[in-house]
């Protein structure tokens, strides 16, 4: 990995280039960090001082190659142990798109950090070692990606150099995974044979694998269609903050600030405020830069209504004919993230959109075996990194959608009120039981 | 046809505005840290986007080492006045006078490290429970690991191995008494994004970001500005050079780069073509050890 001097080229970003957030996952030693290093290196996104640093440290440690993993393993403990503990975020851009990488750990004990990285991703790259094929962690990670409704998954079959660039090996892994994936809820899956170490099919097409007709990884990342992954149908506007200046200049100003979480808002639209149920019309949609004709996800805007309603943080605006589910009995998939197990009767704080409520676990339906997707219905509790289906009762109603319909209005977190630790990621299912 | 796509800068802006409003709604006593540097200049604009036409629901605070660039201080005062907001200055000079910290001696002395105590003292004095900062994950590898709502214990310490999972945009803003958050709305921005945003929003920045002639001296391969406290080492001398700064920090540890960039366009061109990171190029404080930033952050450094 030495040789050519890196020169960062001026980045000529297209006007309005899209942002793609992706996470990388895979088992330990499958080469995630090397792949990211390769992407950054070949897109000329590594600076000389960073590379110099990595080269110095690699040499000092006696590594055979420049260890690109050192670019992303930023904590002392990670470097000592040579493993990734927490999510690292990395950035690069091509003229077509701007990328945010969440480099997530492969170790099973850090699954919660993987879920952290995956929760905001448009796409997940699951790395598989060509010599090993599908292992537990590859199944686990693809299942989590599907559970978190990451719309696009790329299976990067890595270390093809170590299996003689053999198409048979690649096809076997592909078939094995397609079989597993048929049980998952994923729309878009791509398979790409790569060598992260040597750069084959990462940024440029590999000459070692002429049998592969598809695009290299970067090209796929640049072109995968993400525009229709958001919900543009169901209008959802959780009120985040009420803007009411106490000034002579704006005596009657009352604007509802927040992020459009679904659908398209327009002035003149009839809206209903939950939980009050009062209806009004949108008078104006405003930003610091002036009024806008339309607002859509994920814009942060200020909505003004025709009538003076009592609307505050935690309320939600939507269309009268298209309301979310309103209820206190929730049915959800959760990933449990605390050492203390989750048991029925646990009382927790719950954050959903812009509201906090208290919740009690009323039942644990089952725990999932992420390898076989088998449901174990006779578990008394969920332990650290377990994924299961639970029921909750909240102190006040939530206005929510099924997670598969809207990742914003369908997600929540649970917080232990005695420690303030975030203990679970939750995804709501359609109908309360 | 409308594509209903936000360009990447607009998407980053929307995310930052959401973070600022979330913090304002859920914390009682936030404060926005402003140094006069480019990242915190962007933060002030984002706060306008989040809260105007109302006043900011927090004061602005500068941790003044007493060794800041005069141009940055002048800019700081003018900008805060234009915004009509309240400025608190926490002074390292005062911390030294009070005996809270001991000033380093000799030609290599820097007040950068002393800022930590001054910042933590100010947070305690004003009982702030959230300090909004302009740090970015692309700056440094320890920063790349940090959450947007970064939890600090009652000693102001960051525990990198025990961070709260940060899921979707559902920030867990809960604290115990005495603890606080460092909140980083522009975590996901790169240096180039910041410059592009400054161009897009036509934001004014301190003059030292643009090319100018200055009296400097060279040390360890970096160009430092002559200041009233400068002590030269044997063999060093002052000379005049055409330079600009990529970061605005304490004068004792912020290096200049040779540059002829006089406009925002030229600055962006230069940054885009640069082969070294802004910290690698201009910050001496990150060079002490392999994990210098992580170690300082654990102590409570910004």
Helix/sheet category of chain B: alpha/beta
Low-confidence stretches of chain A: 1-12
CATH architecture annotation name of the largest domain in chain A: 3-Layer(aba) Sandwich
The run of helices and strands of chain B is HEHEHEHHEEEHEEEEHHH
Classify the secondary structure makeup of chain A into a structural class: alpha+beta
Characterise this structure.
The complex is a heterodimer of chains A (433) and B (302). Chain A is an alpha+beta fold and 433 residues long. Chain A has three domains: 18-229, P-loop containing nucleotide triphosphate hydrolases (Rossmann fold, 3-Layer(aba) Sandwich); 237-318, Translation factors (Elongation Factor Tu (Ef-tu), domain 3, Beta Barrel), CATH 2.40.30; 325-428, Translation factors (Elongation Factor Tu (Ef-tu), domain 3, Beta Barrel), CATH 2.40.30. Chain A is built from seven helices and 23 strands. Chain A has helices spanning 32-42, 48-61, 76-81, 111-118, 136-147, 167-181, 217-223; strands at residues 18-26, 88-93, 97-103, 123-129, 152-158, 188-193, 237-238, 241-243, 255-259, 264-265, 270-274, 279-287, 290-291, 295-296, 300-305, 316-318, 325-336, 347-352, 355-369, 374-376, 387-400, 411-415, 422-428. In chain A, strands 7, 8, 9, 11, 12, 13, 15 and 16 form an eight-stranded antiparallel beta sheet that branches. In chain A, strand 5, helix 6 (167-181) and strand 6 (188-193) form a beta-alpha-beta unit. The radius of gyration of chain A is 24 Å and the shape is globular. Chain A starts with 17 loop residues before the first strand and ends in a 5-residue tail after the last strand. Mean pLDDT of chain A is 87; it is low at 1-12. Chain B is an alpha/beta fold and 302 residues long. Helix content of chain B is 32%, strand content 16%. Chain B has helices spanning 8-26, 38-51, 70-83, 92-97, 115-126, 191-200, 264-273, 278-282, 292-299; strands spanning 30-33, 60-64, 87-91, 130-132, 149-152, 180-183, 212-219, 222-225, 239-245, 256-258. Chain B is globular, with a radius of gyration of 19 Å. The chains are: A alpha+beta (433), B alpha/beta (302). At the A-B interface, helix 2, helix 3, strand 2, strand 3 and helix 4 of A face helix 1, helix 2 and helix 7 of B.
